[in-house]
Amino acid sequence: MSTPPEQVIFFDTTLRDGEQSPGCTMHHDEKVRFAHQLALLNVDVIEAGFPIASEGDFAAVNSIAHEVGRSGSSPRIAGLARCRREDIEAVARAVLPAVKNRIHVFIASSDLHLEVKLRISRQQALDQTGEMVALARTHSDDIEFSAEDATRSDPDFLTQLVTVAIQAGATTINLPDTVGYSTPEEYRAMFESIRQRVPAGDNIVWSTHCHDDLGLATINTMAGIQGGARQVEVSMHGIGERAGNAALEEVAAILAVRSDAYPYANQLDMKQIGATSKALDEIISFGPAPNKAVVGKNAFAHASGIHQHGMLANPKTYEIMTPSIFGVTANTIVLGKHSGRRALEHRLKELGFTLNREELDEVYVRFTALADRKKSIYDQDVAALVPQSLPA
Ligand code: KIV
Ligand code: ZN
Fold first, then answer.
1. pLDDT digits (tens, 9 = 90+) for 159-212
2. What is the set of domains in the chain, with CATH numbers?
3. Across all residues in the chain, what is the average pLDDT?
4. Measured from the CA of 245, which atom of ligand 1 is nearest?
5. Pure H helices in 184-304
6. Which of 8, 338, 368, 374 has the highest local Cβ count within 10 Å?
7. Is any atom of ligand 1 closer than 6 Å to the C-beta of 296?
């Protein structure tokens, strides 16, 4: 009997890292609505916000804990805290109503951040981490510790810091590529090395958190999994600080479509990806780029004649996945100046017109002339090309 594949935990940070980026601010009710949708998507953990940041953030995390985290089968509700007593106590209060909660504590680990931003020594960082993770542990038995800027940190110090966090009670260790600087090879190697060097590293859930400054967030996340991470921190559409985070829908699609290369299971209800994308689109001020993988308007659209011909013969010619597995409705064949006769004939049939060869040739000539002048060809344009004498 073969052993079941290992699980990857989906930790969604759309409402925290995502929400704190320009154009992505959400009101209280919008956050709660989106968290309900994340529960339908069946993410494992919802990072609902940063409760110390404002009363509004506290209230949203608290409402999500109440409403979305109220049953044992609901996602775990997490809140972010710096290594400060007041932050940790705010998260503890905010997430308390959730049946499963998490306090996510972080401190910077690179010398640059310690010296310039926090103005503390390495020893002070170690002391604060030990003390604050232990404090967090008195409020929850599920503590995540993040070493901010891990990928630009001295590996020996990072090992020391993570060891202190684990000894103080952290159960998940996140090694973020905070500034999106790492390459996939480096990111994977970091997990392999730290996991090996940290005592009891095997009892810990290791987590990725990748930013997209060099467009590497998704592939770095996959590399982290190969290095032993079993939690991925992702956001819908990849929204997040600067260029954003790894996109949930991309990581989910890779795990689904390339399970030969990445043999890991997850709990997501993939059919909810379309609805989750739509919900986000309705809430924040910009949608995904049309060519965005999985959820973009063009992700399953085919405009060139050669591709349309192939798609009509067999979708496998140009599609590696079916949009319906993501609950996405696709406008598969888009008519325009690159379309061929077969695509036009197909659309005419869908509209109820069956033309003989001669008639089709005639309509096709008029179609190409129109397509040269008009960028978008709608069904009513196509219907208007058919001579009145031909009944639908
Ligand atoms: O990018 C980052 O390092 C973060 C941490 C707070 C986890 O968002
Ligand atoms: Zn981040």
1. 999 999 999 999 999 999 999 999 999 999 999 999 999 988 889 999 999 999
2. 6-283 (3.20.20.70), 305-385 (no CATH)
3. 95
4. 1
5. 184-197, 217-226, 248-257, 273-283
6. 8
7. no
